[in-house]
Amino acid sequence: MHILAMDTATNGCSVALTDGARIAARRSAPMARGQAEALVPMIAAVMDEAGVDFGALDLLAVTVGPGAFTGLRIGLAAARGMALTTGLKCLGVTTTEAIARGVDGAGLDGRRLLVAIDTKRNDLYAQMFSPAGQVLGQPEAVRPEDLAAFTGNGPLMIAGDAATRAAEILRSAGTQADLAEAPGLPDAAMVAAVAEQRWQAMDSGERTKLAPPTPLYLRPPDAKPAKDGGGLRPSRPSTP
Amino acid sequence: MIVLGIETSCDETAAAVVSFSEGAGGRILSNVVLSQLDEHRPYGGIVPEVAARAHLQHVDRLVAEAMETAGVKFTDLDAVAATGGPGLIGGVIVGVMTAKAIAVAANLPFMAVNHLEGHALSARLEAEQPPEFPYLLLLVSGGHCQLLTVEGVGRYRRLGTTIDDALGEAFDKVAKMLGLGYPGGPAVEAAAEGGDGARFALPRPMKGRPGCDFSFSGLKTAVRHAVEKLPEGSLEAQDIADLCAAFQDAAADTLADRTDHALDTFMDAHPGGQVLVVAGGVAANEAIRSRLGKLVEARNFRLVVPPQALCTDNAAMIAWAGIERLGAQGPGAADGLDFAPRPRWPLDPDAPAAAFAGVKA
Q1: Does residue A239 register a pLDDT over 50?
Q2: Cα B179–Cα B181–Cα B186 angle in degrees, nearest 5
Q3: Is 3.10.50.30 the CATH number for A103-179?
């Protein structure tokens, strides 16, 4: 089956068109910003190189976060717009799952995997995976001082663009942790692979009912409700 | 010609389908708008991140609704137009990405429309007597307050702009101070009805000065000072009514004075010009409309105010601006799929940026 997958949720922009295990075409570039400009031309280039048109696609896939709010909205808005136009279904994949998928299971050697993603703040986005690549719990925003408790005892392998920082934090907490050999950013081909596996596990009823993917922000907007609605004077008690 | 429009630059998520033919002119086939009032109300104003999240949540569904109401398929479209700026960038990005995705998947031209151009040309859509170029435009909304000469599609000359707050923003802030809630425009107008505008003396910022620039920050501060002088405790309903009436009078007076100057400048360049268009959400205010109505009557001009649904933010005006551009420039009017959404995007690139006005200039 043909899957068009994309990621713009962290520090890169990546698009892949897969046909089963084969990657028919792929584009990716590291970038902290500029995905709104780069993404759709990359999609056009991938479709062109693979010689596939939108009518021949079977599924869309996109990362939903955790990551940069603006970044993950770029991919989600594009993927949902495309799903609407083509009538295709679209599966959402977390950035942590996509990164974990890129880690060679043999290299884990029986150890659990931590995927750690940069939040551009003090905390980290983190999710744990079993040695066989199964998710263990949800992705969370974890403060450095809570990371050792979040991961549990080592030994661990770590992947993601905050892997080096996470390793330092864990080692200083006495947890044995080593860096996995894997790309630090989500790769759209891995997004497609995760999506395909999930799609194959769904029955036709689940596929039909599949709702558009929604963002995984893990953090509310930075805004506080205004006291007294911002009024200069206390409001009058409303009369019944 | 049929164009889909998408608007996500502030706190309305909107999609519309507009058609054009030589015989029938512009026709709105659908125009759906989802206001985010409930999402922003707890914060007493628009929170950009809250807005961006809401746009993503709703925009694809609204596009589907607009297409269905219009009874058209993506293959029936001639182009997809989205607001490319200026505005809250997180929201603009959501609309632009949605439009680019539709364009690439349906093999359609993509157009990034300047939100201000949408307002500037909206008076020509479904009007009984569409204004011919050139005309004078007063664009007065929550995000903008400008006087522009509209010489033609893509040809705008800015005569004046606010140097600080937009007028709609000042309405919102005054409403917030007085505990009237958000959005402030309709609340202030309603409260002003029973008010005595003469009880509080408020300034007319910039009135009598040369040029056509606006300033509303001082007027807002004057309302604050007037409140501080009132007895302690909750405000009486009459205080609120009188303050709102005084604020509205001052705003209308200032707009009229600045527009009067702009009419002089406009007439010097275009002696045959006859039309003043007032667009933007604040154009819905009756007191302001009637004050401007008197002004144009005295000057022998015609006042054109688009219907309410086209004055407040909407996507029909974005689709229409796309149609006008395609009409004026042909297929070359399309933008690249690498278009970068713009937080700032002045309509008149030659006009200097105003000091404190941010995107409002």
Answers
A1: no
A2: 115
A3: no
* Span B127-146, pLDDT tens digits: 888 999 999 999 999 889 99
* Claim to verify: residue B140 and residue B50 sit in the same structural domain: no
The pLDDT-based confidence of B192 (bands split at 50, 70, 90) is very high
Residue B335 sits in the same domain as residue B264: no
Residue at B150: amino acid letter:
V
3-state SS, residue B147 = strand
Say whether both B84 and B210 belong to one domain.
Answer: no
Domain(s) of CATH 3.30.420.40: residues in chain A: 2-95+185-220, 103-179
ipTM: 0.95
Give CA–CA dist B12/B33, Å, rounded: 6
How close A175 gets to chain B, by Cα (Å)?
A: 37
Identity of the residue in B44, B50, B97 whose CB atom sits nearest the CB atom of A74: B97
pLDDT band at A181 (very low <50, low <70, confident <90, very high): confident
Q: What is the pTM of this model?
A: 0.94
By Cβ distance, the residue of A36, A223, A231 closest to B97 is A36
3-state helix, strand and coil shares in percent for chain A, rounded to the nearest 5: 35, 25, 40
* Segment 217-236 of chain B within 8 Å of chain A by CB: 224, 227-228, 233-235
Rounded alpha-carbon distances, angstroms, from residue A58 to A4, A33, A161, A188: 8, 30, 31, 16
Top CATH class of A2-95+185-220 equals alpha beta
Residue A70, amino acid? T
For the stretch A195-230, pLDDT in tens is: 999 999 999 999 999 999 999 999 999 877 776 667
